[in-house]
Design goal:
The chain is mostly beta strands and 139 residues long. The chain has a single domain (8-138), classed as Beta Barrel (Elongation Factor Tu (Ef-tu), domain 3), CATH 2.40.30. Helices cover 6% and strands 54% of the residues. It has one helix at 76-84, and strands at residues 12-17, 23-24, 28-41, 53-67, 88-94, 101-115, 123-138. The longest helix is centred in the middle third of the chain and has 9 residues, at 76-84. The protein is globular and about 65 Å long.
């Protein structure tokens, strides 16, 4: 059954090199997906002085952050490696609950950061810029 209101802990981001088996990014503390629909100008002399637009190019970005654990199969250092190698990744963004929506597609790690302050846990953060279509499905 699909979730109703659910705890953000259940939202999972999975990645892998293009064509591999998806793995949940380890020790994430947050993740988000942002969809954008650019608008193309469609104003004509018949627009009576009002601006008109039509939907044009769609795009998306996925942001994430978490705690570095070098034993994670998919963690901050692997994600930075994908960026440095310009490796295309497959992704999945959603829960594991039956009936819930899941977004899948391909993209590139467009930013990655690993940082640590004195006496604090080492963290990572990054962004996946989606390339191509996003597929919406249900678990």
């Amino acid at each position: 059954m699909a979730s109703t209101i659910f705890n953000g802990t259940n939202l999972l981001l999975k990645v892998i090199t293009d064509g591999g088996t998806l793995a949940t990014i380890g020790h994430t503390t947050s993740c988000s997906v942002s969809f954008t629909n650019d608008m193309a100008d469609a104003t004509t002399k018949d627009s009576s002085g009002y601006s008109e637009v039509i939907p044009a190019v769609r795009s998306a970005e996925i942001s994430f952050d978490g705690l570095v654990d070098y034993t994670d199969t998919a963690g901050g250092d692997e994600l930075a490696g994908y960026l440095l190698a310009r490796t295309k990744v497959d992704f999945s963004f959603g829960t594991a609950a039956t009936g819930d929506t899941v977004y899948t597609g391909e993209g590139y790690i467009s930013s990655a950061e690993i940082s640590g302050a004195m006496e604090e846990a080492v963290t990572y953060s990054g962004t996946i810029t989606v390339t191509g279509a996003i597929v919406t499905s249900v678990n």
